[in-house]
Amino acid sequence: MKAYNISKHSSFYVVGLSYKKADVHMRGRFSLNDDGRTNLLRQAKSSGIDGIMVTSTCNRTELFGFAQHPFQLIQLLCGNTNGTVEEFQSVGYVYKNYEAINHMFRVGTGLDSQILGDFEIISQIRQSFVASREEGMANPFLERLCNSVIQASKRIKNETELSSGATSVAFASVQYILSKVPNISEKNILLFGTGKIGRNTCENLVKHTTNDHIVLINRTRDKAEKIAGKFNLIVKEFGQLQEEIRKADVLVVATGAQHPTVSKELIHTSKPLLILDLSVPSNVDENVNELSNVTLVHIDQLSKMTADTLKRREKFVPMAEGIINEVEGDFKKWLETRKFAPTIKALKKKLKSIKEAEIDNQRKKIKDFNDEHAEILSDRIIQKITTHFANHLRESPNSSDDSIELIKKVFQLETSK
Questions:
Q1: How far is CA 235 from the centre of its chain?
Q2: Is the whole-model pTM more than 0.90?
Q3: What does the pLDDT read at residue 290?
Q4: Comparing 50-54, 231-235, 376-380, 393-397, which segment has the lowest mean pLDDT?
């Protein structure tokens, strides 16, 4: 990647782990909240990395960035999470340069999602880019790449049916609840936490049932009240959690904490209780399984409950891949132009220097010399010349390196990256 003048480092990498090899517990060890992501970005900046993005969702944690060696990025990941290098080596992956670019396209368009065609990831990629830009860690390459992935995602949504049918973890959660809990409109449902999947589950419960007494508890009451107002929920204080669990028939946990927030010590009821843990890392302690009246369901189990819709979606994968190839191809063409951008910039500077010297010379020789006309004419000629050179380099990628060297030699150019 060094030839493309996009970073001082030699290669572009993706280092990360996902649901494919890492279970929910392992993904939890490598998860990053907003503060953790900010700390990682700042450490990357102080270590000399000049372009990096961080995504951390319930299904994956990934770093997209430039480095001399991927271990620099792996160290940043392990240094800011509970995961170790040894654990990463057992479940993680590394992609380099064009493979890394293609990986981002597949992730951002839902082809690599745990639920095929789940497009929530694209908004998370967008947020990751914004976070990097705010910390001064988003270079033009990352900006162009993210915009290209967003473009591909939009086209796949509009031109295929890859995302047709209601399939998401939130929808799967509601379908599971409806199938396992009879007379759901009469049951007590408690949402603990305001994580995105939990909020979406709650919204779907409101839509698909007539239950008007869903209770929401969050450590921060203001946040709970904002969400409760949108979905018409009842807000209770954090101190009432144990009391509300005693009343609940269904408990949906989505706190976003880095450790379990619900354990068997909080559960004092003998009636059946269904607990859905929609958090990564897990927010419900496994010891609740020791209680015979409790059924605990994790996010990975819910992700497998949408087989019929997914089978229908698989037919549209080739069409989606065709769109990715097209948009990714355009991105690579742009990338090729970065290879000769410094040469064209230096050429334009050299021609302008020649122009200024010649105009100054002719001004002394010609009476009533028209500076304005001379400037307009010469600038147009310079633009046409540099455009011809740029088009030649763009249209002859196989010989562009030789052409660049020839242009630099003929015009005695010095380029800066």
A1: 32
A2: no
A3: 95
A4: 393-397
Closest by alpha carbon to 55, among 72, 78, 77, 24?
A: 77
Q: What are the φ and ψ backbone dihedral angles of 297, each rounded to 5 degrees?
A: -125, 130
Over residues 107-138, the pLDDT tens digits come to 999 999 887 887 788 989 999 999 999 999 99
Residues in CB range of 136: below 8 A, 6 or more apart: 45
Per DSSP, the residues of 268-304 read ---S-EEEEE--SS--B-GGGGGSTTEEEEEHHHHTT
Contact 180, 252 (CB under 8 A): no
Strands (E), 106-225: 189-192, 215-217
Structure tokens at 317: 């994968």
Q: How far apart are the first and last CA of the chain?
A: 13
Going by C-alpha positions, the residue among 398, 383, 390 that lies closest to residue 337 is 390
Nearest alpha carbon to residue 111 among 328, 414, 373:
328
89 three-state secondary structure: helix
- Which residue has tokens 């769109």? 323
Extract the runs of DSSP E, i.e. beta strands, from 280-375: 294-298
Q: Provide the residue type at 1 as one letter.
A: M
Mean pLDDT of the chain: 88
- Asked if 211 contacts 193 with a C-beta cutoff of 8 angstroms, the reply is no
Query: Pairing between strand 273-277 and 294-298?
Result: parallel
* Residues in a beta bridge with 251: 190, 275
Place of tokens 């819910």: 302
State how far Cα 99 lies from the chain centre: 16
**Dist CA 37 CA 39 (whole Å):** 5
Report d(CA 43, CA 49) in Å as an integer: 9
The fraction of the chain above a pLDDT of 90, given in percent, is 55
Q: Enumerate residues 6+ apart whose C-beta is below 8 A from 124.
A: 55, 57
**217-235 residue pLDDT tens:** 998 888 888 888 877 789 9
DSSP state of 183: T
Active site residues: 58
3-state secondary structure of 94: strand
State yes or no: cis peptide before 281, omega within 30 of 0. yes
Phi, psi of 21 (to 5 degrees): -125, -20
Tokens linked to 354: 């020649």
